[in-house]
Every structure is written in structure tokens, then in C-alpha cells.
Amino acid sequence: MKIELNPQQKNAKATFRAFVDEQIVPYADQCDREERTPLNLIQKLAQKGYLSAVIPQESGGSGMDMITFGLLNEELGRGCSSLRSLLTVHSMVAHALLKWGSRFQKEYWIPKLASGEVIAAFALSEPNVGSDAKSVETTATFSGDSYILNGQKKWITYGQIADIFLVFANCEGKPSTFLVEKNTPGLTIAPISGMLGVRASMLAELHLDNCQIPQENLVCRQGFGFSHVAASALDYGRYSVAWGCVGIAQACLEACIKYTSQRKQFGVYLKEHQLIRQMISEAIANIKAARLLCYQAGYLKEIGDPKSIIETSIAKYFASTIVNKVANDAVQIHGGNGCSSEYPVQRYLRDAKIMEIIEGSTQIQQITIAEYGYQEYLFSAELTEISQQLVGT
After folding, report:
1. Residue 56 sits in a domain of what CATH number?
2. Does 385 reside within a domain?
């Protein structure tokens, strides 16, 4: 089996790379220091059709196939993980509405999301709820023809500038999902700063105090908020993050190759030292392996194979762990310079750590993957027993 990008995907990757090198890389460190993303940069993403990557062309989007969408995430991740995270959450909300939204929600919101007129954020995490997403404490109460929301959301990516939030709450004990606009009375948005990594992603904490939203802002049905809406959106998020990890790792590799080709120690370039070559070779192998796992997950998503979910978890798990190894080695190779803000590898390392936490931590992925392994083993054992019985007859 030959794994190869088709001509359209190759052209798309080249276009993405050129855009990132010209529009993102020169400003990424400044965005990190200032802990903000310039609005004009977000507008450029929208103008290029990147924010509408998962939205079909008939709805005003770019309608990218899953591999091309992955390539876009890789290149954006290579340039700036914060900006890539905007693509992640914006796409998660768009996907959720396309799959589970009402006809009105699709017709009203999807074109606005596609054009970038509206920026969307995904509001699931809370001060007391992270990995245990089913236990959200935010509540929704039906009153008259409206829902009243109360609670807090935390670590909301681009929550400082988002126009609409996909909020998860318990409604009469049933996990449910709602669209909440930023100007809703009772909604207070508090910026979060001082984070370890992805500092330009403009995190926010949401305080919902008797927020009254119209009945038609319920997405899907009561009780389906986590099992359907969140689950499918998070699957897209994991896929985006996995590719973003490949992008960070690729950025580390390229920085190391450049640095070791210019820096001399003990009379020779760093690249001539065997231990440096060992770290470079490990990075190359790990990046290629992670990229292949992402290709596999993307292909299965494109053809609608149910196994794409577990393959995405595997890709996210592997890519997020190896990028930390690659980024750590990149800082080590750069030595003291690697700890300086004058070199981007320190940013890559800080951003890499965040990748092991968001969209399902490393440990959550391990639990999921191990459970899948046991189920596969039991299924194989049953097939073997049946086969032996058939042979015996």
C-alpha cells in the first residue's frame, strides 16, 4: 500500500506553508509575548477560507477533505500553536452544528462561521471539571420559552474574542448543549493570562449568571449533549491537535537542522557530533510515524469508517507524546540559546506540553486505547474459538 498525497493535496500543503511562513512565523513570538492574536491575522485566516475548512462549499465553506484539513493544522501548528487552536475550536463548533444543529441554526450560523463574521468557542471545561466532562456543574433550567443558564466555564480558547459559545450544561439531570452569544445578559467574560504555553490563544473564564437564552438555542436534544454533540466535536478536536503536534515537531526539527549546521563546538559544526545526530534521527523517525498515524486517521474519517475514532485517539496520543520528546531535545541541542526568548524552540517546548492535556489528556487516551485493545483481543479470541470449532466439525 502506497501512502501519497494527491496533486491537489500537495498544492494545498505548499500553499498553506507559504502562508504560514509569510503571515504567521514572523509574528508568532511577539504574539506569544503579548498573549494575544492580532485581529487582522484572524481576518487573514478567514479570507483564505481556512476558518471554514470543515464547512461544505454549498454552505459557504472551503469543504476540505480530512487529509487536507489535517495538512492545514500541521502547517498552522508549525507556525503558531495558538492560532492553530483557533482553527480547532472554531471547526469543532461548526462541525457540531452541521451534524446536530437544527435547520435554523445551520442556516443562520454556519454562513457566519464560514465567513469569519462570527468566531466560535467551545465551552466544556469548568473550574472543577476537566477530563470528567460528563460531570459539568453548569445548569440549565427551562422557563417559559427560554433556558436559564448558571455556572462557570474555564480555559475557553479564544473566549476573550469569541462571538458565540457552544456551552455544555446539565438540564434537569440531562447533559445538554446550548448556543450562547457573547452579548447575552448575565454572561461575564474574564481573561486568563500567564499560561505555560499557547499564550496567544486568549483564554477566558465564563461566568453565567441567570443567562436567559431562547429555546431554539438548544443544540440537538436534552440528554445528548455529551454522548453526541461533545463526543463528535472532541473527536474533531483530537484530530486537529494530533496534526498540530506534528507541526510543532516539524518546526523543532527544522530549527535544529538549521542551528546545528551553523553552530560550532569543539572545532566542528554541531551536526557532526554523533549524539546530536542521534537526536535528529529520533526526531525524524518519530515525526514520520506520527504523521502516518494522522494520515490513517484522516483517511478513515474521509471514508466514514467508525474505526477513525480510535485511530484518532492513537494518533493524538502518540503525536502529543513524541512532540514533547522532540521539543525537549530541540531545547537541549540549542543549549542556553534554547532557553532564550530569542529562539522559538522554548515556545515550541511550552506549547508541546499543552498538547498532552487538551482535547483529552495523555492518560485519558491511554485508557481509551487500552480498552480498545482488550476488546479487540476478546473479539479475536472468540473468532479463534469459532474457527477451531468449525475445523473440529
Report:
1. 1.10.540.10
2. no
